[in-house]
Amino acid sequence: MKRTLLSLTLSFSLAALTFGADEKKSVVLIAGRPSHGPGQHEHNAGVQLLAKCLKDSAAPVDVKVHLNAEWPSPEEMAKADTILIYSDGGGGHPALQGDHLAQLGKEMKRGAGFVCLHYAVEVPITPGGPEFTDWLGGYFEPNWSVNPHWDADFKELPKHAISNGVKPFTTNDEWYFHMRFRKDMKGVSPILSAIAPDSTMSRSDGPHSGNPAVREDVKNKVPQHTAWAVEREDGGRGFGFSGGHYHKGWSNDDQRKLVLNAILWSAKAAVPAEGVTSKVTEEDMKTNLDPKPGQGLPVKAPK
User: Fold this and answer.
1) What is the CATH number of domain 24-286?
2) Alpha-carbon distance 41 to 234, whole Å?
3) pTM of the full predicted structure?
4) Could you state, in order of their start, the residue ranges of all structural domains in the chain?
């Protein structure tokens, strides 16, 4: 018993040394409904894994999780220091349902943070485009941005709180790129950038597959930004991350750390110099997966 208490005391002491005595920030994580095949677009499992990692790291945050596109109450939104959405996008984006865009606008105006992962960075040109350009710094614009699967080699990272402790890494994912960013990249800092190979342009032109502008960039080896941060005029912060198609990506320590750092940064919590440290097991990666055909789980309707 004494050994257990000593271990807990040491853990809390280490956490205090790492994060200091900052007041807890309110973090709201919204997961979209199940979609795609096994191990893909695992919004519910992904959000819960990130929440677990934040809790285990003893980061100074109070995390609220909403699954299957459940929308937080206005009262909860009003207290949020940052709001994260990991979901399908386009016209079915949770932010575009009902009056959700107006609700988000109210919270952004007071300086709340905003984070979108993978497909959640895509909204129509209108509604959504102007708002996401402002709140997030940029977004996936149909007929401008593209969504190929490729090996993105992030050889170096910028000096930024979000990249604290993150080492260069390479993963295969549906890394979107050629985002529609703010004019002159005002307030926007690229976080992950890589040279897209010619193979990313193997498809014909289409809303998500290609267009003359992106083909020219790829031909000229222009670095493509797949994750970025913005500091807004309203005092809020935004972070867009185009990876996350494959659930297995969250087992990559550097990818996971980058996003955990970004959640803290967007909430205006201090990010440790070594970044948010977390560990996930094989069992953690299997926990909370949606019951999809081929997933190896009982198939049942989501709650």
Assistant:
1) 3.40.50.880
2) 32
3) 0.92
4) 24-286
